[in-house]
Amino acid sequence: MRPLFSFVAAVLYSTHPGSPLDTFIEFRNVSFAYGERPILKNLNLTVPRGKLVAIMGGSGSGKTTLLRLISGQVRPQSGEVRVNGVDVATLSGRALYEHRRRMGMLFQFGALFTDLSVFENVAFPLREHTRLPESMIRDLVIMKLAAVGLRGTQDLMPGELSGGMARRVALARAIALDPALMLYDEPFTGLDPISLGVIGHLIKKLNDTLGTTALMVTHDVHTSLDIVDYVYFVANGEIIAEGTPEAVRASDSPWVRQFVSGQPDGPVHFAYPAARTLAEDLGFQGESGV
Ligand SMILES: Nc1ncnc2c1ncn2[C@@H]1O[C@H](COP(=O)(O)OP(=O)(O)OP(=O)(O)O)[C@@H](O)[C@H]1O
After folding, report:
1. Which of 89, 137, 219, 241 yields a CA-CA distance of 20 to 30 A from 29?
2. Sign of the dihedral defined by the CA atoms of residues 45, 242, 240, 261, in that order
3. In 179-198, which positions are buried (b, 16+ CB within 10 angstroms) versus exposed (e)?
4. What is the pLDDT of residues 230-268, one digit of tens each?
5. Residue 266 lies in a domain
6. CB of 64 closer than 6 A to ligand 1?
7. pLDDT band per the 50, 70, 90 thresholds, residue 270
8. How confident is the model at residue 276 (pLDDT cuts 50, 70, 90)?
9. 85 SS3 class
10. Is the distance from CB of 122 to CB of 172 less than 8 angstroms?
11. Is residue 193 part of a domain?
12. Of the candidates 189, 52, 39, the residue with the CA atom closest to the CA atom of residue 107
């Protein structure tokens, strides 16, 4: 008999061919606070199946928290986070484990295991989560490395790779189990422009060829606008703008304009909102300050 957890996982991630259900991730009126500190406020967001969607916003606006809600690391105080129709907060134990197993994650600091070869790094999730024979693990690792353009590097150690190559190996490892959902957190950080373009192109290609749904938190406006299907902008825990890359580029929203063109001041102020004026701080009583 099939164990209950694998049945749950199968239901959770079955692709419903031809189904009208085309929303893969849905945030419904989600509010979340760390302790007393509100981070997300009544937030609504959807990611259609098979699409690549970016979340952009200033530092500390709650973007990574969105990913943590999807993986079930934290739970909302109110509202629902649904993945393929299932409320993540209702999952626990084995079902939550299976939910996470079906996700690939590529994080900015998702470092490789430095004492394992490239081959063993990519094989790691296959060894952890499957009982595939060694010959099949070998073939899968070679195929995943080929998918990121790094076939032939399997015997190298992480210390022998450039930063861009290491990120590609991490990507090969993230897709080792053919995830239904990919979560990217700042996948472009610290890369030179060529490696950045390569990773961006790969993320898009993998999404298209594997039919994966993907959500990407990023500050890199230009690379992401070239590859994503849709963008949400988050500020102060709320979605303040959204649209296709074309709509974002053409937007006259001051907030979007400031973000897209990297202006230092605008709706997001350059200066911290100090309680006292500069003149007061410098002891010039009675003069107008800045
Ligand atoms: N475990 C935690 N406990 C308390 N506060 C936290 C915790 N994790 C994050 N925060 C705070 O919650 C806010 C949102 O964090 P989050 O990491 O989601 O932001 P972000 O938009 O991803 O930021 P960045 O772009 O700088 O990575 C931040 O102010 C952060 O300091």
Report:
1. 219
2. positive
3. bbbbbbbbbbeebeeebbbb
4. 999 998 889 999 999 999 999 888 888 888 877 767 776
5. no
6. yes
7. low
8. confident
9. coil
10. yes
11. no
12. 189
Closest CA relative to residue 220, chosen from 240, 206, 203: 203
Q: Tell me the C-alpha distance between 224 and 53, whole Å.
A: 9
**Which residue's CA is minimally distant from atom 3 of ligand 1?**
34
Q: Backbone phi, then psi, for 148, in 5-degree steps?
A: -100, 15
Please give the torsion angle defined by the CA atoms of residues 118, 119, 120 and 125, in that order, rounded to the nearest 10 degrees.
Answer: 100
Burial 68-82 (b: 16+ CB within 10 A, else e): bbbbbebebeebbbb
The upper half-sphere exposure of residue 279, i.e. CA atoms within 13 Å in the direction of its Cβ, equals 7
Calpha distance 221→252 (Å, rounded) = 16
CB 201: neighbour CB atoms within 10 A? Answer: 14
Per the domain annotation, does 263 fall within a domain?
no
> Can you give the pLDDT at residue 8?
40
Helices (H), 20-92: 63-70
Report residue 286's pLDDT band, with 50, 70 and 90 as the boundaries. low
| Ligand 1 atom with minimal separation from the 57 CA | 21
On whether residue 126 sits in a domain, the answer given is: yes
Higher pLDDT, 17 or 209: 209
Domain that holds residue 150: 110-178
The protein residue with its alpha carbon nearest to ligand 1, atom 17, reads 64
- How far CA 257 is from CA of 52, 236, 244, 261, in Å, comes to 22, 17, 14, 6
Instruction: Tell whether ligand 1 has an atom less than 6 A from the beta carbon of residue 209.
Output: no
Q: Burial of 83 by CB count in 10 Å (0-12 exposed, 13-18 middle, 19+ buried)?
A: buried
Q: How far is the CA of 273 from the centre of ligand 1 (A)?
A: 20
Number of separate domains in the chain: 1
Say yes or no: CB of residue 62 within 6 Å of ligand 1: yes
Complex confidence, ipTM = 0.94
